[in-house]
UniProtKB/TrEMBL annotation:
Keywords: Hydrolase, Membrane, Transmembrane, Transmembrane helix
Protein name: Glycoside hydrolase
Keyword presence, Transmembrane helix: yes
Keyword Transmembrane helix: yes
Transmembrane feature ranges: 6-23, 28-48, 54-74, 86-106, 135-154, 161-181, 222-241, 253-278, 298-323, 373-393, 414-431
Region Disordered, annotated ranges: 474-493
Entry's Gene Ontology molecular function annotations: hydrolase activity
Coiled coil: none
Source organism: Erythrobacter rubeus
């Protein structure tokens, strides 16, 4: 086990959080670590060059902070376990099958391995057998659960809601800035600085496409950059839709959307199209759930984007043809390309694994997929798939008003935004995800969303003193009040913000 320079910096920060850190610092530490998806905090040569990503390493310190006897968090852990029981079942089943299934079904099924082998070619397979990737997948499954539990526990504490909002906004602008620098500094010595953060054992791919530079930022390839950017985009867009610090979250969402378009990743285009369709469907079905004027502003923004594109095409006439060729290559042309055929082959492995294992799954880390849906089915079978779907239902809570717009309280409103974003951020992975392990931001937002909408918390956090202390609500004299002054709490444009 080798600690990288990123791991050293994290260890110093993590020790400070364990000894002296607050909820705000712990949340920032987790979320900012989660955007370093192309980095390694710890390298494991004994496991074939596998690595521990920064978010998993940061989780070690935040977990220690929660388990500390005098930390004040430990009492919330039993409720957090109950809130996330279906994710725990999904992970426990996956961890058990990662060890047992490759041994139980060894040699009975051929797979394309998670760790590519050069001599196999694009469609080569090897007999199913236990590999180091099964051990790595077990660790990642455990990390997904602990992320949800940690964020669930921390979200119950005063000030956590404001910290979550600020941390997501900060992470978004770091993501945008890294993408802009990667785009403008390509081919200069500054690219070596960005490469410092790409120290994990991932192949560095996709430099250009149809003459366009593919944006990778701090990550290994454009599709990963787009997947992370989309998670941050839906989080900020859903907060803007519910008037949570809308002056900041709105511009942040616009910046992330522009970077998704410029990323040239097919998953970004498909994910944006799906989100736009769902956004319009929600507006049609639940128009009263949105704050006044929000749908009109969304329509104006959409028309503004179209106007900007039309003006750009007038000044650069050849640009529409180039963009169309790029989109065609990244979407429609994918199915005819070698890459598209290979991705289809990988995706179908999940279905074949489900059938070959009699619905039990062959274990996470046993094969590479190109769709998280198929990866879940092939890895953890029917039982794991049902558990994961039940956790999605628990996270979204479709019967709550906050899932579609404004909630009854600021905490419910933020919980609805994060719950919706947690579900939506799975769209890119469902198209191109190689493994059944959900991305870190899914666990972070899902765990926090469930905690923020707990009724027991609302009684404490929505009291006048607590609300005014957070600065998320303003106090107004009640109309026609006589005698002692009464107050009515109304949501401002900075819900849950400091």
């Amino acid at each position: 086990m080798e600690l990288t320079y990123i791991g050293v910096v994290q260890a110093i920060i993590g020790l400070y959080i364990v000894l002296l850190g607050s909820v705000r610092s712990a949340i920032f530490f987790l979320i900012l670590s989660a955007i370093l998806m192309g980095s390694a905090a710890v390298v494991l040569p004994a496991l074939g060059g596998s690595s521990i990503p920064p978010v998993q390493f940061a989780l070690l310190f935040t977990t220690l902070r929660i388990l500390a006897p005098k930390g004040g968090y430990l009492g919330f852990l039993p409720d957090a376990v109950g809130d996330n029981k279906w994710l725990i079942f999904f992970a426990m089943y996956g961890m058990a099958s990662a060890y047992l299934a490759p041994r139980l079904f060894a040699g009975s099924f051929d797979v394309f391995p998670m760790q590519p082998i050069e001599y196999l070619g694009p469609f080569g397979t090897v007999p199913l057998a236990p590999t180091p990737q099964n051990i790595t997948a077990t660790f990642y499954m455990f990390g997904a659960v602990m992320l949800a539990l940690s964020c669930n526990v921390m979200s119950r504490m005063p000030g956590a809601a404001a910290a979550m909002i600020s941390a997501i906004i900060t992470a978004s602008w770091i993501h945008i800035t890294s993408g802009i620098l990667d785009l403008t500094m390509r081919g200069t010595p500054f690219e070596d600085f960005l490469a410092i953060f790409r120290n994990a054992s991932y192949a560095q791919l996709d430099a250009t496409a149809s003459g366009f530079v593919r944006i990778r930022g701090l990550l290994a390839e454009a599709s990963i950059y787009a997947g992370l950017g989309f998670a941050l985009f839906v989080a900020t867009a859903e907060m803007w839709y519910r008037s949570i610090r809308s002056s900041v979250t709105g511009w942040t969402a616009i910046g992330l959307a522009m970077m998704l378009v410029l990323s040239t990743a097919s998953t970004a285009y498909v994910a944006l199209a799906v989100y736009a369709a769902l956004f319009m469907l929600r507006a049609i079905l639940f128009p009263s759930a949105a704050p006044a004027g929000k749908l009109m502003r969304a329509a104006i923004a959409a028309f503004g984007a179209v106007f900007f594109l039309c003006a750009l095409f007038i000044f650069v006439p050849q640009l529409p043809i180039a963009i169309w060729e790029l989109i065609a290559e990244m979407t429609f042309g994918k199915s005819e390309s070698l890459s598209g055929q290979q991705r289809l082959f990988w995706a179908m492995q999940g279905w074949h694994a489900l059938i070959a294992s009699y619905g039990l799954g062959i274990g996470p880390g046993s094969f590479r997929s190109s769709s998280q849906i198929m990866a879940v089915l092939g890895s953890v079978g029917i039982f794991g798939f049902v558990a994961f779907v039940l956790y999605l239902v628990r996270t979204f809570e479709a019967t709550r008003r906050s899932s579609w717009g404004l909630g009854a309280t600021p905490r419910k409103t933020l919980g609805g935004a994060l719950g919706s974003a947690a579900i939506l951020c799975l769209i890119p992975a469902s198209i191109s995800g190689p493994s059944p392990v959900p991305m870190a931001f899914f666990s972070i937002m899902a765990g926090a969303a469930i905690a923020l909408r707990r009724p027991v918390q609302e009684a404490v956090e929505t009291s006048p003193d607590a609300a005014l202390e957070r600065g998320g609500l303003r106090s107004f004299p009640a109309k026609g009040a006589r005698g002692p002054r009464k107050t009515v709490l109304r949501p401002s444009n900075r819900v849950c913000a400091r």
